[in-house]
Amino acid sequence: MQAKKEIRAGRLYIQATYSAGMLPGMRPAERQQRQKAQSEAKRKINAVERQYHLVQLFEVNFKAGRDLFVELSFRDEPPDSKTEKNAVARFHRRMKAYFKKKGREYKYIIVRETHNREGQAVRVHYHLVCTGTGQRMREMIQKCWDAGGVDVRTLRDAFGGFEDTCRYLLKERKEKNERAFRTSRNLKRPEEPLRRRIREAEAGEVPPGVEVIRMDMNGSNPYGRYTIIVGRIVDLEAFDRYWAKAKLDRRRWEEAQNWKRYARQKRRN
């Protein structure tokens, strides 16, 4: 059997399938090789999901053309980390109060940077993606950030997705135990992934309405296989029909598993 996992986050779609469990009649050496193949598949899948974790948050929380991409710079280099943290906390507090007056929620993702795109050390600054109200935002952001200058731009989605923006935000390698980014607590999370088992011979297929961004697979491995598909949903109507059927298939699979567990328990008793 294969394990199949599907993630939907706004326009982003991720599918991962990999061989799970052992096949009947396998010798010990073959079982060891199959376990190795499964571990490698899980490692690859986890790496892709980590890479697209920030993209998922973007997709379910922010909208191009409405929300904002902001750079917050310091007038002078902060003398210590406490001064720096207080400036950022003060900014968030003021922004939250402003949004509350507008009857809106202040949601954000913020990244701390100390290097430029070429890797050269620069004065500490922050990149912020936040919700926009559409009125006087540049003026309000400058008023809320009293530690230096601001650069406010409308959030864009290159080629219909946020991958490029997320790649830019994560370009700097962080120190150990330093977070790559921080978020407000009120960010929405993607819906729960669909998980189920499929036949060993079944191949991962691109769903209707999805345009492939990347695809990885190891179909040549005789001890186990995996397929990873990352795509962009370009035809919502076609994909919604597929997603409704996928949910139905999962529910039927779960019901079958529950019945099998019930039958085994009944035989034991």
Give keywords:
single chain, 269 residues, 5-stranded antiparallel sheet, 10 strands, 38% helix
Query: Which regions are unreliable across 5 or more consecutive residues at pLDDT < 50?
Result: none
Helix content: 25-40%
- What do the pLDDT scores average to? 89
The number of distinct helices, counting runs of at least 4 residues, comes to: 6
Task: Count every beta strand, where a strand is a DSSP E run of 2 or more residues.
Answer: 10
Order of helices and strands: EEHHEHEEHEHEEEEH
Question: In terms of structural class, how would the helical and strand content be classed?
Answer: alpha+beta
Spatial shape: elongated
Radius of gyration: 23 Å
Characterize the biggest β-sheet.
5 strands, antiparallel
Report the β-strand fraction as a percent range.
25-35%
Question: Between the first and last Cα atoms, what is the distance in angstroms?
Answer: 29 Å
The largest sheet has its strands arranged as 8-1-2-10-9
